[in-house]
């Protein structure tokens, strides 16, 4: 993987948007629990993708990307929960849900390919 690849760019941009939503949730909506969960999972995706770049082995690389995929799925869950519970309206999270879905597809494809080549 190249350092300036699509995955790293998307996950970094996504993390910035998650931080922006988190700040809104805390300052305006006074929502502290779900927003903190979203902040952790949403920023962890890119952190794990970055760690994968510096992996010490193929197994470590696959592990870090698998964790990033799980964090993306968790982030997607928290976004849906915030929307469906009425804490935020759909327009506030629609783009984030799309971004997260794209990231999940990219990560899922990479992890699936790595698993296929390991068998």
In short:
By secondary structure, the protein is an all-alpha fold. It has helices at 6-27, 33-53, 58-84, 90-118.
Distinctive features:
119 residues, mainly alpha, de novo design (two linked rop proteins), 4 helices, elongated
Summarize model confidence as the mean pLDDT: 95
Per DSSP E runs of 2 or more residues, the count of β-strands stands at 0
Low-confidence stretches: none
The number of helices is 4
CATH architectural grouping: Up-down Bundle
Shape category: elongated
* Level-1 CATH class name: Mainly Alpha
CATH fold node name: de novo design (two linked rop proteins)
In total, how many domains does the architecture comprise? 1
CATH superfamily: 23S rRNA-intervening sequence
Helices and strands, in order, run as HHHH
How large is the share of residues in beta strands? under 5%
Largest sheet, in brief, is:
none
Which structural class do you get from the secondary structure elements? mainly alpha
Nearest-angstrom radius of gyration?
15 Å
Question: Helical percent range?
Answer: over 70%
Q: Determine the N-to-C terminus distance.
A: 21 Å
Protein name: Four helix bundle protein
Pfam family, one: 23S_rRNA_IVP
InterPro entries: 23S_rRNA-intervening_sequence, 23S_rRNA_IVS_sf
């Amino acid at each position: 993987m190249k350092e300036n690849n699509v995955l790293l760019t998307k996950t970094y941009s996504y993390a910035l948007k998650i931080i922006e939503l988190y700040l809104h949730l805390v300052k305006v909506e006074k929502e502290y629990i779900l927003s903190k969960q979203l902040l952790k999972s949403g920023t962890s995706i890119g952190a794990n993708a970055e760690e994968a770049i510096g992996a010490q082995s193929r197994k470590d690389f696959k592990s870090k990307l698998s964790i990033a995929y799980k964090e993306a799925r968790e982030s997607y869950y928290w976004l849906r929960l915030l929307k469906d519970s009425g804490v935020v309206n759909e327009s506030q999270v629609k783009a984030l849900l799309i971004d997260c879905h794209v990231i999940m597809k990219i990560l899922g494809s990479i992890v699936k390919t790595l698993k296929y080549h390991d068998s």
